[in-house]
Amino acid sequence: MQCMELQNTLKEALNALYHHPDDAVRMQADRWLQDFQRTIDAWQVADNLLHDATSSLETLIFCSQTLRSKVQRDFEELPSEAFRQLRDSFNNLLKKFHKGPPIVRTQISIAVAALAVHVPAKDWGDGGIVNWLRDEMNFHPEYIPGFLELLTVLPEDEEDVKAIAQLFADMGDSYVELIATGSSEAMMIVNALLEVASPLEYDIASMTFNFWHSLQVILTKRNPNISFGDEASIEAERSQRL
Q1: pTM beyond cutoff 0.70
Q2: 68-83 pLDDT, tens digit each
């Protein structure tokens, strides 16, 4: 069965599963979808439909769950050279859904985190996936919320935690003026900083000291007539930073 035909069959099966009045038809559709997820064709079909602007929410959820499970359980099906293409596709999907359905973005984030388990750090470039994410956020700050979610689901050993803490601290330093405006993007960075600094370990918490000091200085010197979260100040600083 050709890829396009499979895509259409998948969408028909999802429609039957969620909307057909006959229980037998729904069960048949469910069995087909489960079998499909175990095929090697599921990689390409799910990826294509996630990039398709006409895909329904049901299709997006199913395909993001499919790719997540394929990376976690069936990564060995892919040739080694497929990593870069898969990584770039996930990168584009994180950007596409950075303000999209949270469930879809979360599944893609988990898939990337699973990919990091399978692929040696050197294949991500110098510094592994954390530095790769740092570069992506520096080049595309408008997509920071999506990348922040990915960071929260990465597998973590002690060195990973410190690397992520340093990344958040650097982001806080870079965006301290925007953070001081109280924008929604800013609060995501602040919450990430609080989460990563929460372990009672001096080395991690101390990484954020410069950021908190800089933020305090800005807030104490700001114009008292401008309220926290003021739209004009947020837009002015966002246009400067983004």
Answers
A1: yes
A2: 999 999 999 999 889 9
